[in-house]
Amino acid sequence: MIDLHFTATPNGQKISIAFEELGLPYRLIQYDIFQGDHLTEAYGRINPNHKMPAIVDHDPAFGGGPHAVFESGAILQYLAEKTGKLLPADPRQRSVALQWLTWQVAGLGPMGGQASHFMRYAPEQIPYAIERYSRELARLLMVLENRLSEAPYLAGDEYSIADIAIWPGRAAMAVVDVNLAETYPNIYRWFSTIAERPAVQRGRSAEKAFPDKYMGRHQKLSPEEWSNMFGDRMHSAVPGHA
After folding, report:
1. Are residues 178 and 228 in the same domain?
2. CATH number of the domain within which 117 lies
3. Contact, 38 vs 31, CB < 8 A?
4. Does residue 209 belong to any structural domain of this protein?
5. How confident is the model over 41-73, as pLDDT tens digits?
6. Number of domains the chain contains
7. What is the pLDDT of residues 193-232, one digit of tens each?
8. Which of 48, 72, 131, 242 is most exposed, with minimal Cβ within 10 Å?
9. If 0-12 CB within 10 Å is exposed, 13-18 middle and 19+ buried, where does residue 61 land?
10. Is 2 within 8 Å of 54 (Cβ atoms)?
């Protein structure tokens, strides 16, 4: 059994979808990040960065007792290697899959997150920040669009953890305020195809679906919620940092 420390965000859904695709048994442990559930010392021993998600594998292939993994890209690669699935066997295609996985965690994800923050959470509108991050997000989406004009999936012909890493972030694309089918037709085709997969539907349904309070176009946080998400309590959760 593997514990999945989870909140229903795109990063969390990456991992719940991967578990469903791989057929691995897992125990879902829900966190409310607005309430600061992720800021405890106990969770810090699992993920010293105090972000979601993380896993604890109680029976790792290499033995030695429970093994914790944090960062969504690292978790996806760990699960793929554990099962021998969702990574191409062909070394060239495997390399391509890992390149796109890295592209998501290093570029598309952070830029989408910053665009979302300044458009949805920032207490005041900062035009430079909004333009900077929304424009970069649009550029990255065109990189994705161009890749998907060449192949059905990120690694080529084979669905992989690279696709799983990117797919749940479709909700975050709303910040660029475009018609996806018209502006990014290849992304739209890819997104629609993956949305039909039964494991994807299971990985984002019921308690794993985005709650309404995470989906507001303009989020209004209480002082406590702001502290837990972006402010003093979030920063002070890391020992030695205030």
Report:
1. no
2. 1.20.1050.10
3. yes
4. no
5. 999 999 999 999 999 999 999 999 999 999 999
6. 2
7. 999 999 999 999 989 998 877 766 678 889 999 999 999 9
8. 242
9. exposed
10. no
Q: How far apart are the first and last CA of the chain?
A: 36
Positive or negative torsion for Cα 137, 201, 164, 194: negative
Under a CB-based contact definition with an 8 Å cutoff, are residues 161 and 143 in contact? Answer: no
d(CA 126, CA 123): 9
* Stated pTM of the model: 0.94
Residue at 238: amino acid letter? V
Both tokens of 98, joined, read 């890992």
